[in-house]
Amino acid sequence: MPRRLFTAASQSAPTVSVVPHPRTGLAGRAARFAADAKGSVGIIFALSTIVTVSLVGGAVDFGRAFSAREQAQSSADTAVLAAARVWQTENDPSLAIEKGTAQFAANRPADLNTDAPVITVDPATNTVRLSVNVRSPSPFLSVAGTDTIEFSIEAHAKLARGATARRSLEISMMLDVTGSMAGEKIASLKSAAKDLVDIVVWDDGGHHTARVALVPFAEGVRPGPYLDAVRGSKPASHKFMDVRGNSQTYKLSSCVSDRKGSDALTDAAPGGTAKVGPIYTASGACTPANAIMPLTDDKVALKTHIDGFTPSGMTAGQIGTQWAWYMLSPEWNAVWPAASRAGAYGAEDVTKVAILMTDGEYNQAYDAAGVATQTSGRASANGTADGHARQLCESMKQKGIVVFSIGFELGSETAQETLRGCATDASHAYMADDGEKLRLVFRDIAQRLSTFHLSQ
Which one of 20, 140, 312, 334 has the minimum C-beta count within 10 Å? Predict the structure, then answer.
């Protein structure tokens, strides 16, 4: 059993013998007092020595413990951030705990005596927590029965969304689902886009939210249930002379082309003359088969929609670019459901992001009537497809929208230049040579928008 502080001192205190003096009176009492004082000084000196050693040695022991605490805290901070990063990228709490535990063991000094860390992942608060008990030897304080100094430390990593944890995030993803994306390429895109959704959209952000919109594009964009609101009434068919001089009658499709006239480079609400353009085809069919999805924080719905992408058709990237902007524009809020309406431009607590992804050069443009120029032989109403896309990107950036661009197995130098010109700056433009790199690109963007930081 541990010894009490003064036990040793009591056992080693000198024995005091007082011999009666034959004299009485004041002199006798003085002699007896002197004898008693000598004994008391011995006892006090013994006790004082133990206390002094304990105080001085205790300071050394506590200094050693403080150093151990600093080492343990550093190891814990590194470990909790490692666990958080794995959770963020892999969406696997068990793997996050495993990696965090291994990181703590690897960084902990060999002479540091600790228990195994306890790591918990809390999706409700977007937080990873680590706690661990630490023991530091105390040889000086052992005189007082304290062989070790024990303490516990904690480390928290909280996911900050957008630029900080106090910002809402609005992301519009323009995703290429043209015919050239068939096979492994569309599978890679689906995995990459779903990774981003998992990373950036959190379950409960309180007042602040993270929402994602999807704009699959091919030869046009399919507005789905919003078609009438954005395109308005158009003739069911269109007669024209094709490039060979033959008379053609094309049918109105359910896809839309780029906006024409003075609103071609704006995000004006789709009313009056600002309606988006129609697309007429020989059969009335059009691509993509997949409709847009306005801003939402429903991860299941987003990933289900992504899984349904079917590749086909040509590449009208300027139309996809235009629609990526519309999803983020407060001018279009009357079109969308209340939960999908965009925040105001310039709001301090809102970050707007457009992600533009393609695997090919923009090669599909439309004349003023909505017929592909290679069929009608007429000039595009808005110039070249890639030139129009670059102008739209500049207009978006002027509104404060952050633009990321992604080229996927992109051989065309013209297409690469278009994407680089569209991006906010060179660090926001990516080129992915294969499916695995595409997935890493989407993850990198997601992590730039969602960063774990240590919290108190």
Answer: 20
Supply φ then ψ for residue 402, to 5 degrees: -80, 130
Residue 421 CA to residue 194 CA, distance in Å, equals: 26
Q: Are 61 and 140 within 8 A, CB to CB?
A: yes
pLDDT band at 12 (very low <50, low <70, confident <90, very high): very low
170 DSSP β-pair partners: 211, 352
What is the DSSP secondary-structure string of 283-328? SS--S-SSBPEEEE--HHHHHHHHHT----S---HHHHHHHHHHHH
pLDDT category, 43, cuts 50, 70, 90?
low
> Is the per-residue pLDDT at 8 higher than 90?
no
Residue 136's pLDDT is 80
- pTM of the shown model: 0.72
Length of the chain: 456
Distance, CA of 222 to CA of 323 (rounded, Å): 10
pLDDT score, position 152: 87
Evaluate whether 26-161 and 168-455 have a shared fold. no
Report the alpha-carbon distance of residue 372 to residue 311 in Å, rounded: 19
What pLDDT score was predicted for residue 339? Answer: 96
pLDDT in tens, 399-432: 999 999 999 999 889 999 999 999 999 999 999 9
Q: What is the CATH number of domain 168-455?
A: 3.40.50.410
CA distance readout (Å), 396 to 323, 345, 386: 11, 11, 15
Whether the CB-CB separation of 107 and 76 falls below 8 Å is answered with no
Residue 287 scores a pLDDT above 80: yes
Q: Which residues contact 244 (CB under 8 A, 6 or more apart)?
A: none
Q: Which CATH fold topology does 26-161 show?
A: Nuclear Transport Factor 2; Chain: A, (3.10.450)
Output the DSSP codes for 91-139: --HHHHHHHHHHHHHHHS-TT-EEPPPEEEEETTTTEEEEEEEEEEE-T
Q: Where are the domains of the chain?
A: 26-161, 168-455
**How many other CB atoms sit within 10 Å of the CB of residue 403?**
25
| 302 touches 293 (CB < 8 A) | yes
